[in-house]
Amino acid sequence: MNHAQIRAFHAVASEGSFTKAADVLNVTQPTLSGQVAALEEIYGVKLFERRGRGIEITEIGRRLHAVTLRQFAVELEAEQVLLSARGLMSGQLRVAADAPYHVVPLLATFSRLYPGINFSMSFGNSQQVLQGLFERKSDVVVMPNIHEDRRLHAAPLKREPLIVFVDRNHPWAARRSISITELPHHRIILREKGSVTRKIFETALESAGVKLTDILEIGSREAVREAVASGLGIGVVFESEFGNDTRLHGLTVRDVQLEGLEYVACLKDQKNSPVIRAFFDQIQSSTATNLS
Predict the structure, then answer these.
(1) pLDDT tens readout for residues 51-93
(2) Does 160 score more than 90 pLDDT?
(3) Are 113 and 280 in contact (CB under 8 A)?
(4) Which of 8, 13, 122, 201 could form a disulfide with 65 if both were Cys (CB 3.0 to 4.6 A apart)?
(5) Tens digit of each residue's pLDDT (9 = 90 or more) over 176-231
(6) Beta-strand relationship, 140-144 and 259-267
C-alpha cells in the first residue's frame, strides 16, 4: 500500500478540502488529487463525492478514515518513544493565543524545562486563533471558552472574571462595582465580533434583559484601552488584561456572573505529539488551583 496515497487521503478526509489538505502537506493540489485518484483506481472505490466546489466523504471513505486516524496516531506514538529517549532535546512548537497574559508565562516555564525546543507565538481574536488551529497554522492555542468539538483536545487552564473599566475622570471612578442595569445609559466600547470577551459580555446582558443603546466597536484591545482613557466610553476586559494603567479604573459587575474559562487546546489527532504532550503535561500541575 502506497503510504503517500494514504497520507493524501487522510489529509483530505481530516481537512474536508483538497485545497486545505494540499497546504497542510505542502504539495500542489493536482499532486494531492492525483494521489487520491490513484488510490481510488487501485482499489476500485470512491472515497469522495465531488459536489460543485466542495467534497463529501463516502461511507467507505469514512471507514478508511477511522483506520488512518489510528494509523497516524500510532506513528506519532512511535515518534514519541524515539524522542523521549533523547529527552526532548529538539523540536518545534507553534502557539497561538488571543492575548499574551496567560500564554507567555506558560511558554517561559516550558522553555526552561525544554531549552532545545524552538517555539513561536502569534496572536489574534479568538475566532482567528481557532481557525488557525484548524488550518494547522499552529500546534497549540490558549484562549477562553472553547466549545466542545470532536476535532479538538482541550484542557481547562484558569477561570477568570471580566470587569468593566472607565477613565479616571468618569463619575464611576470612585466606585468599586456597578449593576449591569446601569450600562445602557452609557456608551460601551467593545471589540469586534469574534472576540470571546464581547460574546461573554453580550450573553450576560441578554440573560439580564439589558439592551445597549450606544456601542462603539473597535478592532483591537489596545485601541479599546486608549479610547476609554480618552473618555470615549466604558470598556470590558478580562481582569488579567487590565494591567496597571493609572489613567483607568476597573469595576466589577455585581449582579451577573461575568467570567470566562481559559483553555489550552490542540487538534485531537496531534495530542500525542511528543512536544504537544509535554506542553499539556506542564499545565496539569497548576490546573487544580486555577480552577478552584
Answers:
(1) 877 899 999 999 999 999 989 888 877 776 666 655 677 788 9
(2) no
(3) no
(4) 13
(5) 999 999 999 899 999 888 788 888 999 999 999 999 999 999 988 889 999 999 99
(6) antiparallel
End-to-end CA distance of the chain: 51
What is the grid cell recorded at 248?
Answer: 483607568
- Residue 109 CB contacts under 8 Å (≥ 6 apart), including other chains: 282
Look at the domain 3-84 and name its fold.
Answer: Arc Repressor Mutant, subunit A (1.10.10)
Nearest-angstrom CA–CA distance, 207 and 96:
31
Spell out a b/e string for 166-196, using b for 16 or more CB atoms within 10 Å of the CB, else e. Answer: bbeebebeeeeebebeebeebebbbbeebbb
Q: How far is CA 1 from CA 4, 32, 38, 137, 278, in A?
A: 9, 16, 11, 29, 33
Query: What is the pTM assigned to this prediction?
Result: 0.61
Which of the four CATH numbers 2.40.10.220, 3.20.20.70, 3.40.190.290, 3.20.170.40 does domain 141-292 have?
A: 3.40.190.290
Q: In which residue ranges of the chain is CATH 3.40.190.290 found?
A: 141-292
Q: Which residue has the cell 490558549?
A: 142
- As annotated, the residues of the chain forming the CATH 1.10.10.10 domain(s) are 3-84
Give the pLDDT confidence score for residue 287 in this predicted structure: 57
